[in-house]
Amino acid sequence: MKRRDFLRLALKGSAALVLVKGGVEIFRPAAGHASLKPLRWVFLVDTYKCIGCGFCVKACKLENEIPFDTNVSRTWVERYVVTKDGDVFADTPKEARYGFTTTRIDLGMGKDKNIPLQNIDKAFFVPKLCNQCEKSPCVQVCPVGATYQTADGVVLVDREWCIGCGYCIMACPYGMRFFHPVHHVAEKCNFCYHRITKDMKPACVQACPMGARRIGNIKDPQDPVAKIISTQRVSVHKPEYGTKPQVYFIGLSEEVR
Amino acid sequence: MHVLRPLYVILAIVGLILVARTMVVPKDFGVQERGYMYGWYRKANEEEWKAFKVKYQGKEYCQTCHAEEEQQVNASRHKTIECENCHGPAVEHPAEPQKLILDRSRELCIRCHTYLSYPTSKRSEIKGIDPDQHNPGGECVGCHNPHQASKPL
After folding, report:
1. Is B124 within the bounds of a domain?
2. Is residue B49 part of a domain?
3. What does DSSP say about strands A247-250 and A41-46: parallel, antiparallel, or unpaired?
4. Residues of A in contact with B88 (CB under 8 A)
């Protein structure tokens, strides 16, 4: 082979390689999205600030059209009372849609128990909502592709596509999913996707008078919520399941189930 | 060859299913950004969720017309409470609905003002009553103005 031929061939070859690589970049969807501002929705709950008023639950049910008097909700508030004897009581009367208005603990089946305040070691409220897990088990088990995770991390349910098999409801370790009483398909918190995509806060975040609930973008280093999560002591609910939940808590206690 | 007949039937069924599939499954159904395990879905559903109706509009929306009330509340301890928590979701008020349903009930007030002296919870720092002892059955708004929380009427 002459030197001239060799150089010509090498030039052609590298041109072809560049073309192929460019083609791959164009047709790979992830490359297109990399140009957008990175976004991953996360939630921060400060249990010290929660007062158990339940305005978040009321706002959520009305905003997301979950019939108000049904015993299902996308979010709820739990009360934990630890007595001096070491007993743990937990309740969430009517998902706390009317708040906590009595010292009596709801034991279920119409029974309740009054714990005198002097017997209490610690007592606190814990708001719960969907963790929008990075490795969401509910999405993995869906046999028809009706539930999925968007590029910004929120897990949604396609009401037209859901067949109502209930696998996802069984798969969620946090019990966040339920059947919608009207649509009869799987239902869950989606951080008010219709609001956060319009630069509004989720209904529960807006309704909270204490600032106990906050939403943010973990991929934005300037985001105040992302700063707290990355620099302060926060924890997640049931990390042992490996679901990588994205609702972070301040002041979560071992009594919280 | 008659032994091959079942094969033709099966092939016809498979073909039929494949044709039916192209008609039933929407064009945008498939693997999206999050990959097959988390992102196998109908893309148009994202837009359907984004188009869901907003009901709670927030304080800024209310104060464009009700600035006086907004200032009054903001000067009181109730400044952190959203108007819609008590007055109900605005939706497209005043166009629809023209009048909001205001919850003036005692039950609404005692959401925060039942005194629960729980340690390690902000609830213990909120002034409260025992609803069974403090004027049971009475309406709180008969004596207290929720827009000027610190002052009794």
Report:
1. yes
2. no
3. parallel
4. 62
What's chain B's length in residues?
153
Range of the domain at B152: 104-153
The chain A residue lying nearest B34, using CA atoms, is A151
Q: How many residue pairs from chains A and B have C-beta atoms closer than 8 A?
A: 152
B149 pLDDT band (50/70/90 cuts)?
confident
ipTM, two decimals: 0.91
Q: With CA atoms as reference, report the closest residue to A137 among A168, A96, A163, A160.
A: A168
Average pLDDT value for chain A: 93
pLDDT at A29 over 60: no
Query: Quick one: which of A244, A216, A239 has its CA closest to A45?
Result: A216
Cβ separation A207–B56 shorter than 8 A: yes
- CB A100 to CB B111 under 8 A? yes
Nearest-by-CA chain A residue for B24: A161
Q: Is B8 contained in some domain?
A: no
Tens-digit pLDDT profile for residues A182-192: 999 999 999 99
Beta carbons of A53 and B58 less than 8 Å apart: no
Nearest by Cα to A198 from B121, B47, B99, B94: B47
Residue B111 lies in a domain: yes
Domain count, chain B: 1
Look at residues A61, A51, A48 and name the one whose alpha carbon lies nearest to residue A101: A51
- Helix, coil or strand: residue B46: helix
